[in-house]
TrEMBL record:
This is Saccharopine dehydrogenase NADP-binding domain-containing protein. Residues 10-123 form the Saccharopine dehydrogenase NADP binding domain. It comes from Streptomyces fuscus.
Length: 341
C-alpha cells in the first residue's frame, strides 16, 4: 500500500475492538490522519480521534457521514443485525470492507451487488482469517487440482488469545447450529494432528457458490485438545440450543472472553480433492483478531486507491487480493503448500 495518493477518510466501525484496533493502527501507520475509529462509547471513540456510531441507528450513521463529509471507505468490525448499514454506505458510493462471518448476513450484503455497482462503490466480503484467508487458501487448493469436487477447510485457534467479545459471542452462537458433517483428523503445521469438528464458518457456503464446488466443509479445533473435546461435547449435549438458553450462552461468552489459557498461534488448512488428485495449502500466524484487522486494512487501502471493481465481491473473487497472505509475511503469516498428513 502506498501512502497519501488519494483523498478521503476511512471510518472503522468497532474501531477500538480487537479487530478494529488492528485495522486502525495499520492504516494510521500507512495513511496518517485518515482513520476515524467509531463505536457506541463516545468518550472512548473521541479519545482516539473518532466519533460515536451505533450500527443499529442508521439515521445517526447518515448524519455522521454527512457531517464527516469525506468518508470513502467504511470498515465494519462489528456484526449488525442486517444488511441495511451496508446499503446506506454502498448507496452513497462509499466502499465497504466487512469482516462479518455470518452466512445469512453475508448473503444479504452480497445481494447489494447491483446497488453498489450503480453507485460506483465496492463491497468486499469474507475479510479476515475465517472467512478471509481460508477462502484464499481454498481457492489455491481448488485451482491446484483443476477444480475441486470437495473442499475441507480446517481452522485451529489459539485458546490463549484475547479474542474480542463480539467474536466469542459469534463462536458460542455457532455451537447451537445443527451439525452436518463428521469430525476429521487433520495435521496442522506447528500443531501436530488434531480432531477438528464441523463449524458454521461462512466460507464453506460461499466457496460452494464462488468456486462452484459441490461439497465444502469447514471444521474448527482449538490448540488445546482437551478444550476442543470439552467444547464439542458440550455442543453434543444440545444444552446451548434454544432461546431459553441465551443466558447460558452469555455466561459462556463472558467466561471465554476472560479466560486465556494456552498460546495465541492459529493455523489454517485447505484440502481440495478431485478424483485421485489432492492438494493442500496451510497457513500459520499469531493473533487471529490482529491478522483479521491486517487483512481488512490491506483491502481498505486498495479501496481508497480505487483499485477494485465496483459491486460486491467475496475476497476470492478479486484476483488483486490473491496475494494478501504473502503481503502479511512481515507480520508473521506463513503460507505452506502441500502440507503433510
Ligand atoms: N473474518 C474473521 O476472520 C473474523 C475474525 C475475528 C472477528 N471477526 C468478526 O469481527 C467482529 C468484531 O470482533 P472483535 O473480536 O473485534 O470484537 P470486539 O473486540 O468485541 O469489538 C467489537 C467492537 O464493536 C463495538 N460495537 C459493539 N456493538 C456496536 C454497535 N451496536 N455499534 C457500533 N459499535 C459497536 C464495540 O465497542 P462498543 O461496545 O463500545 O460499541 C467494540 O469496539 C465480530 O463480528 C466477529 O465475528 C471476524
Amino acid at each position: 500500500m502506498t501512502t497519501g495518493d488519494t483523498s478521503g477518510r476511512i471510518l472503522v466501525i468497532g474501531g477500538y475492538g480487537a479487530v478494529g484496533s488492528a485495522v486502525g493502527s495499520r492504516l494510521e501507520e500507512r495513511l496518517p490522519g485518515r482513520v476515524i475509529p467509531a463505536g457506541r462509547n463516545e468518550v472512548r471513540a473521541r479519545r482516539l480521534g473518532g466519533v460515536r456510531v451505533d450500527v443499529s441507528d442508521l439515521d445517526g450513521l447518515r448524519r455522521t457521514l454527512d457531517k464527516l463529509g469525506d468518508v470513502r471507505v467504511v470498515v465494519l468490525c462489528v456484526e449488525p443485525e442486517d444488511a441495511l448499514l451496508a446499503r446506506v454506505c454502498l448507496e452513497r458510493g462509499i466502499h465497504l470492507v466487512d469482516v462479518n462471518a455470518t452466512r445469512d448476513l453475508l448473503d444479504a450484503v452480497a445481494d447489494l451487488d447491483g446497488v453498489a455497482a450503480a453507485a460506483g462503490a465496492t463491497g468486499v466480503l469474507s475479510v479476515g482469517v475465517a472467512p478471509g484467508l481460508t477462502n484464499l487458501l481454498a481457492h489455491r487448493a481448488h485451482e491446484a487440482v483443476g477444480g475441486a469436487q470437495r473442499l475441507d477447510v480446517t481452522v485451529l485457534l489459539g485458546s490463549g488469545e484475547r479474542h474480542g467479545t463480539d467474536a466469542v459471542r459469534w463462536t458460542v452462537e455457532g455451537l447451537t447450529e445443527p451439525v452436518t458433517a463428521a469430525p476429521r483428523s487433520v495435521f496442522l503445521p506447528g500443531h501436530g494432528t488434531h480432531l477438528a469438528y464441523p463449524f458454521p464458518f461462512s466460507d464453506q457456503h460461499t466457496l460452494r457458490r464462488t468456486l462452484g464446488v459441490p461439497e465444502a466443509t469447514t471444521r474448527l479445533c482449538l490448540d488445546s485438545r482437551p478444550l476442543t473435546a470439552a467444547l464439542f461435547a458440550l455442543r453434543g449435549t444440545g444444552l446451548l440450543r434454544g432461546e431459553h438458553r441465551a443466558p447460558l450462552r452469555r455466561t459462556l461468552t463472558g467466561a471465554f472472553s476472560r479466560v486465556h489459557v494456552g498460546a495465541d498461534a492459529f493455523a489454517l488448512r485447505a484440502d481440495a480433492w478431485r478424483d485421485d488428485d489432492h492438494a493442500a495449502f496451510a497457513l500459520t500466524g499469531r493473533e487471529q483478531s490482529r491478522v483479521t484487522g491486517l487483512v481488512a486494512a490491506e483491502i481498505a487501502g486498495e479501496l481508497l486507491r480505487g483499485q477494485l471493481p465496483p459491486g460486491v465481491h467475496h475476497i476470492e473473487q478479486l484476483p488483486d487480493l490473491a496475494d494478501v497472505p504473502e503481503r502479511l509475511a512481515a507480520d508473521g503469516v506463513r503460507v505452506l503448500r502441500r502440507v503433510g498428513g
